[in-house]
Amino acid sequence: QKSAIENALSCENFYLIHGPFGTGKTRTLVELISQETRQKHKVLATAESNAAVDNILERLMNNKKLNLTRLGHPQRVSKHNITQTLAYKVEQHELNDKIKKIHKKIDNLIEKRNVHTKPTPQYRRGYGDYDILHNASKGKGGRGISPDKMKSMARWIEINQEIDEYLDEIKRIENKMIKNIVEESDV
After folding, report:
1. Are 56 and 47 in contact (CB under 8 A)?
2. Which residue intervals of 47-146 are DSSP H helices?
3. Could you report the per-residue pLDDT of 106-147, keeping only the tens digit for each?
4. How much of the chain is helix, strand and coil, in % rounded to 5?
5. How many C-alpha atoms does 69 have within 13 Å on its Cβ side?
6. Contacts of 156 (CB under 8 A, 6+ apart)
């Protein structure tokens, strides 16, 4: 095990540790990760199964100085390790309150949008969004669509565009949170 750690630390690119069950590969790997993080190196540790990753994570959690982030689907993570998952950390992140407020705005906009006519093909009659918005701004109807129906579809489109902008903002905030969490993680 000591030889494997020495060789792995001195190896420039790749070092393979393999062996039968119960020979201490996980313990060796945990020690190797600990030594790499002491040298201020970031580590991406992977394994062939969720159970194996959880096993490594649980052993690393004994080192309280390490900032660990468990990637993967939260339902496939051991209940002991759930607080280390990216999903949990995103949920606890300070920017998550901003996302919740944006979701409330979106919910209100959806309620407003629902009182207007959704421009489905049956109502569009060949008009694109730009055409509907243009005609509504001029107070025009066309192709059997009344001016009021045109205005209602235009309002639906405008509100929907606003919702899309908020959804884009949520995506930007989520990406910022994820980047922040990953950058702060040692492993």
Report:
1. yes
2. 50-60, 86-92, 96-113, 121-124, 129-137
3. 999 999 999 999 999 999 999 999 999 999 999 999 999 999
4. 65, 0, 35
5. 19
6. 113, 116, 117, 118, 119
